[in-house]
């Protein structure tokens, strides 16, 4: 894939460095606008709220902001790390008036309204710049020329025509691409186009692939590229006449002319060394150090692998998986196993020189699971007993990854290694780590060190892995600090995942089930290997910045050792010329990868957007869920090179700027005491406030460094639906649930105000899940839901409760496995549950939604005056 490399400067970098935006003049107000009345005690010169006549159905909402902010906005207070500038210095202070939650925009209401209006309907992608339903809405996609929103979502579906307009509003122009997104059963899988030895048809100049936006001219003999305007000859075999509309007669017969997403079979030109690739392999690498053997973890893993290996991913229609498998155990040294089907017993070979890692056997290490099943079962039965008497507590880590890379090199294939590990790798070997967890760095200029990986060995390993197409998945079972920022660095650059189970106990059934569900899902999910992706755009704008579990050697080629159905990449765009309202803007994401059966393919996703010189059009076609995905990733990258306080300041600053620009340029005359929000962004402040209260952005010594690093890395690869749920958890009143119906109770606002002493609530955010029981929950409620006599029996039956919840609730959602924590009102674990009530004040220093709105309002007032 070729094309001119864009300049390396990044909007995200500038955004997290630039000066505060300039002040603005007087506001206007159009349709689809929400205005909030703020009656203030913050600034004496503000006028009291008045009620002008309502325009275009805009709402005026009175909000009481008490004097907690004081007249002066200070910076974050010493006693309250993580507060945005001017947040209260402690929980004490004047009691806030009971707030009427219904008076300010509600995410749950917006989600419910969208489900009511668009749920169960078909969304056809035949209109340029059409805003899709929310990620939380249940709808069916019909591909008619633009990629499904399951594959691509944008921060706005109308781009501003000029760089000046983009700079003026500061709304990021970006898209979130999930190239392997899972499709529901009622949607058509991608068509595969095979042009034989000629391969896919591409523009001679910019190398874009044939797509629905190409214009056929000269009776169908030539076509004009929509990306670079170059006129190309149509190959003889591809020629077709045009109808009276100038459209090819075979338009509907060819996926690449009528659909937004499709695949091409790649020719040998797209393969390494012009040779077809071998099918990928999976290697399972188990840490057999003292603690893992004694805890029973090794036995649990070995038992489960027998089941999991039956479910290796396979191409549709194939009887069995083409993926080869291999096994390694390790502590200070590595043990490789020969599991060739001809053997009666597996054979072990030990490599103790971890500085010069090599694979001691070629034949019999990577095998076909079905052929070698008996030998593999034998091995998995023997491993726990083989190391039963071990006293070795030290482990290596980098050589384990190196061994995987060497094995794939020797077998000339790509693949994935699954590492099951539990402690800081302190044995003498490359990549040895020491404890560098220093709480004294929190809230200082040097805090970023806690998030940065240790340089050297792991950096080179990432490059080696990507070059070989070796993806690393890490299952961590730590009981203390393991320097996750460094250990997870290779997974984070190879399209891998990191699963973390703190203080894992095998005998605790909930722990075991949680891990096993993750492992099953991880092994089975659809995935592509040895991938390289390029995002092309039509003239006038270009892709300038990329966030995800990726590696980049240059400014245009996004390399991924693997990409699975959960991984998303966020791409930022910048103007390099003026865009035309008439022709709009086009982008094409082309992903070259190897399938699980070893076929080289190209997956193409196309998107067309509108362009406008009216800022009101841009705001009208924004998507808050995509915006917050972009801001989360920008902020989480920015904390690697600047203090948290700066990053939080910039988030608030930019929020205020975007809303002030809307008020100035798009809103009709209104009273100074109103906060005016565009309809598409009216809950944006809730999400931004929630983002600022997440562990990576809160400077608190009470939060574990590894947990903060883990969340930072997880979010970098998340799609829009994952960041939405993480930043606004779902809180469901289970006491309202009809056990005989398939319908779930409607979620309520994520605030203490929603709880009831006599209620039972389920809260989940994709990473953790709580069952909260009010002190006065009636016993018959618990009994009918879980068939238990009373609350007293809950702890003993947590696994059964989890199973019921998992079957009755989580199977109706697209959620990954999370562990259930049962929390009783006013018990100690309730603290964790309350941290997830994102509309309330956070115990680590974040403000309530209400206080944040008041603060943003004040910032907007300053910008406008």
Q: What's the gist of this structure?
A:
Its main location: cytoplasm. The chain is of the alpha/beta class and 865 residues long. The chain is 26% helix and 20% strand.
| Assembly annotation | single chain
Q: What is the approximate shape?
A: globular
Structural class: alpha/beta
**Biggest beta-sheet profile:** 8 strands, mixed
The termini sit apart by: 50 Å
Strand content: 15-25%
- Overall pLDDT level: 86
Q: What are the segments in which pLDDT stays under 50 over at least 5 consecutive residues? A: 1-14, 17-29, 37-99
User: What gyration radius follows from the Cα positions, in whole Å?
Assistant: 28 Å
Which range best describes the helical content: under 10%, 10-25%, 25-40%, 40-55%, 55-70% or over 70%?
A: 25-40%
Query: What is the total tally of β strands?
Result: 31
Number of helices: 22
Description:
This protein is of the alpha/beta class. Mean pLDDT is 86; it is low at 1-14, 17-29 and 37-99. It contains 22 helices and 31 strands. A hairpin with a 6-residue loop joins β10 and β11 (231-233). 26% of the residues lie in helices and 20% in strands. The two termini are 50 Å apart. The strands form seven sheets. Strands 13, 14, 15, 16, 17, 18, 19 and 20 form an eight-stranded mixed beta sheet that branches.
List keywords for this structure.
alpha/beta, 31 strands, disordered N terminus, seven-stranded mixed beta sheet
List the helices and strands and how they pair.
Blueprint: H1 11-15, E1 33-40, E2 59-65, H2 107-118, E3 122-124, E4 140-142, E5 152-154, E6 158-160, H3 163-169, E7 174-177, E8 192-193, E9 215-217, E10 222-224, E11 231-233, H4 255-258, E12 261-265, E13 281-287, H5 290-295, H6 297-308, E14 324-330, E15 334-338, E16 347-351, E17 367-368, H7 373-386, H8 398-411, E18 415-421, H9 457-468, E19 470-476, H10 484-487, H11 489-493, E20 498-500, H12 509-524, E21 527-537, E22 541-547, E23 558-564, E24 569-575, E25 585-594, E26 600-612, H13 615-620, H14 624-638, H15 644-666, E27 674-678, H16 684-692, H17 705-716, H18 720-727, E28 730-733, E29 760-764, E30 768-773, H19 779-786, H20 798-808, E31 819-824, H21 830-835, H22 849-864
Parallel strand pairs: 1-2, 3-4, 6-26, 8-12, 13-14, 13-18, 18-19, 19-20, 30-31
Antiparallel strand pairs: 1-27, 5-7, 7-24, 9-10, 10-11, 12-26, 14-15, 14-17, 15-16, 21-23, 21-25, 22-24, 25-26, 28-29, 29-30
Domain Gelsolin-like: 744-795
Protein name: SEC24 homolog D, COPII coat complex component
Family: Belongs to the SEC23/SEC24 family. SEC24 subfamily.
């Amino acid at each position: 894939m070729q094309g001119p490399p864009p300049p390396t400067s990044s909007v995200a970098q500038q955004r997290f460095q630039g000066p505060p935006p300039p002040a603005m003049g007087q506001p206007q107000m159009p349709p689809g606008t929400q205005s909030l009345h703020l009656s203030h005690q913050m600034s004496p010169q503000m006028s009291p709220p008045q009620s002008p006549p309502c325009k275009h159905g805009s709402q005026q909402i009175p909000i009481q902001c008490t004097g907690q902010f004081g007249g002066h906005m200070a910076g974050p207070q010493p006693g309250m790390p993580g507060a945005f500038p001017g947040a209260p210095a402690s929980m004490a202070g004047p009691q806030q008036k009971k707030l009427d939650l219904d008076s300010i925009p509600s995410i749950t209401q917006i989600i419910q309204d969208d489900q009511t209006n668009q749920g169960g309907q078909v969304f056809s992608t035949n209109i340029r710049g059409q805003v899709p339903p929310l990620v939380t809405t249940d709808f069916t996609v019909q591909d008619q020329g633009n990629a499904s929103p399951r594959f691509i979502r944008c921060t706005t579906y109308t781009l501003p025509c000029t760089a000046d307009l983009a700079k003026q509003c500061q709304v990021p122009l970006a898209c979130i691409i999930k190239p392997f997104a899972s499709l529901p059963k009622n949607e058509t899988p991608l068509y595969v186009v095979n042009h034989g030895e000629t391969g896919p048809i591409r523009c001679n100049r910019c190398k874009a692939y044939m797509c629905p936006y190409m214009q056929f001219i000269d009776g169908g003999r030539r076509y004009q590229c929509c990306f670079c305007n170059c006129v190309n000859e149509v190959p003889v075999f591809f020629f077709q006449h045009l109808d009276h509309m100038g459209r090819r007669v075979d338009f509907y017969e060819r996926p690449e002319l009528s659909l937004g997403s499709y695949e091409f079979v790649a020719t040998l030109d797209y393969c390494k060394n012009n040779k077809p690739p071998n099918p990928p392999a999976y290697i399972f690498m188990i840490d057999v150090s003292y603690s893992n053997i004694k805890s029973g973890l090794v036995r649990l893993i070995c038992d489960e692998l027998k089941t999991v290996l039956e479910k290796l991913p396979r191409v549709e229609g194939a009887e069995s998986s083409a993926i080869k498998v291999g096994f390694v155990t390790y502590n200070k040294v590595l043990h490789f196993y020969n599991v060739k089907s001809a053997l009666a017993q597996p054979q072990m070979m030990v490599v103790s020189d971890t500085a010069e890692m090599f694979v001691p056997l070629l034949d019999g290490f990577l095998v076909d699971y079905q052929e070698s099943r008996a030998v593999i079962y034998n091995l998995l039965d023997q491993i726990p007993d083989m190391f039963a008497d071990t006293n070795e507590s030290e482990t290596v880590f980098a050589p384990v990854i190196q061994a995987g890379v060497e094995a794939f090199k020797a077998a000339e294939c790509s693949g994935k290694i699954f590492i099951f590990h539990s402690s800081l790798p302190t044995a003498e070997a490359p990549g040895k780590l020491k404890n560098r967890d220093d709480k004294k760095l929190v809230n200082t200029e040097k805090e970023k060190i806690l998030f940065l990986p240790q340089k050297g060995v792991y950096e080179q390993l990432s490059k080696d892995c990507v070059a070989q197409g070796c993806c690393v998945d890490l299952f961590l079972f730590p009981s203390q600090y393991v320097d996750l920022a460094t250990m997870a660095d290779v997974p984070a650059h190879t399209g891998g995942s990191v699963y973390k189970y703190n203080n894992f106990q095998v005998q605790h059934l909930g722990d075991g089930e949680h891990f096993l569900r993750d492992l099953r899902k991880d092994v089975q999910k659809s995935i592509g290997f040895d991938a390289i992706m390029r995002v092309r755009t039509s003239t006038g704008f270009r892709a300038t910045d990329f966030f995800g579990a990726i590696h980049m050697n240059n400014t245009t080629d996004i390399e991924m050792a693997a990409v699975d159905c959960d991984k998303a990449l966020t791409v930022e765009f910048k103007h390099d010329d003026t865009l035309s309202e008439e022709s709009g803007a086009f982008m094409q994401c082309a992903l070259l990868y190897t399938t699980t059966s070893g076929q080289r393919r190209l997956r193409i996703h196309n998107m067309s957007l509108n362009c406008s010189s009216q800022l009101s059009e841009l705001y009208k076609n924004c998507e808050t869920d995509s915006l917050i995905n972009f801001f989360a990733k920008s902020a989480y990258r920015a904390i690697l090179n600047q203090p948290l306080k700066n990053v939080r300041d910039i988030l608030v600053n930019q929020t205020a700027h975007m809303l002030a620009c809307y008020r100035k340029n798009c809103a009709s005359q209104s009273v100074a005491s109103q906060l005016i929000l565009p309809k598409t962004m009216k809950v944006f402040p809730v999400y931004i406030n929630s983002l600022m209260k997440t562990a990576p952005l809160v400077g608190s010594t009470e939060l574990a460094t590894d947990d903060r690093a883990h969340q930072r890395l997880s979010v970098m690869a998340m799609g829009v639906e994952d960041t939405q749920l993480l930043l606004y958890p779902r809180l469901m009143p289970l006491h309202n649930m009809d056990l005989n119906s398939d319908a779930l109770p409607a979620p309520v606002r994520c605030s203490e105000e929603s709880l009831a002493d006599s209620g039972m609530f389920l809260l989940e955010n994709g990473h953790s899940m709580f069952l909260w029981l009010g002190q006065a929950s009636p016993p018959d409620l618990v009994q009918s839901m879980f068939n238990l006599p009373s609350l007293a029996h809950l702890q003993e039956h947590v696994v059964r409760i989890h199973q019921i919840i998992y079957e009755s609730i989580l199977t109706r959602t697209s959620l990954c496995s999370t562990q259930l924590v049962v929390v009783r009102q006013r018990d100690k674990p309730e603290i964790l549950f309350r941290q997830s009530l994102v509309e309330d004040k956070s115990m680590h220093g974040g403000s309530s939604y209400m206080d944040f709105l008041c603060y943003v309002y004040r910032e907007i007032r300053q910008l406008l005056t």
